[in-house]
Amino acid sequence: MSLDVPAPVLTVAARGEMDDAQFLAVVRDSLPYAWEVVAAAVDDQAPGKAFGEHEVPPPSEQQRGQLLRALASNAIRGALERHFGIVLAFQNCHRVAVFTPAAVDSPIYREFVSPRGQVLNQSPELRDC
């Protein structure tokens, strides 16, 4: 299961009344490591810097799973992007980058998300990450 959803939130969702704030609270509480990684990448995005990133491998498989679930889910990823006002990019099992929405059309963003960028970010120790 990706998220631990409290009964009151399930009730609100069933009535069609759920908003981003409620969903983000569930994400933050259910996937704390993923939340911390995205927040760290946002904090790394200093003025004048092309993008912020987090490149530290997760300390455990459980934390790796949290990160993968957060970035693989359209709903979770979209909510994180709206909350932080960024666009997420992801390579390997742990390299998360954040870009401003305006940077999505930039050469550096296109390079980061390109097949070439993915290949250049590979190493034998990351094969089974």
From TrEMBL:
This is Uncharacterized protein. It holds the Pfam family KH_NucS_shadow. NCBIfam families: SCO5389_fam (NF040488).
